[in-house]
Design a protein that fits this description.
CATH superfamily of the largest domain: Response regulator
Structural class: alpha/beta
CATH topology of the largest domain: Rossmann fold
Helix content: 40-55%
């Protein structure tokens, strides 16, 4: 009796077989090289096909490929092109709504360009920043968008030495000449302080961060310039925010302040929560002005004014800048000397 192979085994075998250009060439009766040129759309520097292929032959090859359900290997294609079409984005804390929103916008932009994004968070740890840089370099990403943290200078030098295009956002490192996209922090802080003054605040303070990033230092300097040299500044540690906010709330009440500027939406929410816990009538006893939106602001009357940073524009400008650098590198230019600076304005809401 003849051996019968069950139908489902044949079906599974056919479904799992990877169709190659060699299979297409055999079925279409042409050379493997010709299939490769047709399927990979090989063109010369002038944008014209490097080899002439008749329309009938090309149609036959594509018809066979479609019928055999040919799926080109993206890994093989990238190897041939010497490109990965991947960029690395290193943020401070992707769980923070500010960085999370920027990450979402960046991903939308680069995806439309045919790129994939690898994300990482440093948690303000320079060693972690360095490990992410190393990991992304090993994955051969084509460029970086980074948020520098304090102490990450040696790893920025590593990126420069590797000749890999990168753009800093939100912060810059004064000791390094690098491309960046930043907010005009001084202008933004002047608006926040001015909003409290318009609401009748006479004695205000600032809730900031212990991290000596360029962003926080610029906002603190602008606060002192606008609110006065004696205006108190309270600072939170990255890993002790709630405890430090409790201490700050006590000091604020002891000082008799009637207004507070908060240097981030996170700082605003933590301070509002603590003040309410202490029985303070927010926007009556103490008025708040913040940076970036939080839905907590909507429950108070009068309105809690806040500086709105142009997050979609930050994402767009940083991605556009990075792709310009990638294009220059592709043309053989020395991108390590690029120092493009983009400074954006904020709005007060």
């Amino acid at each position: 009796m003849a051996k019968v192979t069950p139908f489902f085994l044949i079906f599974v075998k056919n479904m799992t077989k990877n169709v190659t250009i060699k299979d297409i060439a055999r079925e279409a009766g042409v050379s493997i090289a010709l299939v490769s040129f047709v399927m990979n759309n090989r063109v010369g520097a002038d944008g014209k096909q490097k080899y002439r292929v008749s329309q009938a032959t090309e149609e036959r090859i594509r018809e066979v490929a479609a019928r055999m359900n040919y799926q080109p290997s993206s890994a093989a294609r990238m190897l041939r092109q010497g490109r990965t079409h991947v960029i690395g984005v290193i943020l401070s804390d992707i769980g923070n709504i500010f960085y999370g929103s920027i990450a979402k916008e960046i991903e939308k932009i680069v995806t439309r360009k045919g790129y994939t994004v690898l994300f990482g968070s440093t948690e303000e740890d320079p060693e972690r920043f360095g490990r992410l840089v190393q990991s992304f370099l090993e994955k051969d990403v084509e460029g970086f968008i980074i948020v520098p943290c304090v102490g990450c200078g040696p790893y920025i030098q590593r990126l420069q030495a590797a000749g890999r295009p990168f753009v800093a956002i939100d912060r810059h490192s004064p000791e390094y000449e690098i491309p960046y996209v930043l907010l005009d922090n001084k202008q933004a802080m002047h608006m926040a302080v001015g909003a409290l003054i318009k609401q009748g605040v006479r004695k205000m303070g600032l809730l900031s961060y212990e991290m000596r990033t360029s962003t926080m230092m610029e906002r603190e300097q602008a606060f002192r310039e606008t609110a006065g040299a004696d205006a108190p500044i309270y600072r939170m540690g990255f890993y002790s925010k709630e405890q430090d906010t409790r201490k700050a709330a006590g000091a604020i009440l002891d000082a008799g302040l009637d207004g507070m500027v908060c240097a981030s939406n996170e700082a605003s929410v933590l301070l509002i929560k603590e003040l309410i816990h202490r029985g303070v009538r927010v926007q009556e006893d103490i008025r708040i002005a913040g940076f970036d939106y939080s839905n907590v602001y909507d429950i108070f009357t009068p309105h809690i004014p806040h500086v709105e940073q142009p997050l979609p524009l930050i994402a767009k400008e940083s991605a556009d800048c990075l792709f310009r650098l990638i294009d220059k590198k592709d043309h053989g230019d020395d991108i390590t000397k690029e120092k493009e600076r983009i400074v954006l304005k904020a709005n007060l809401i």
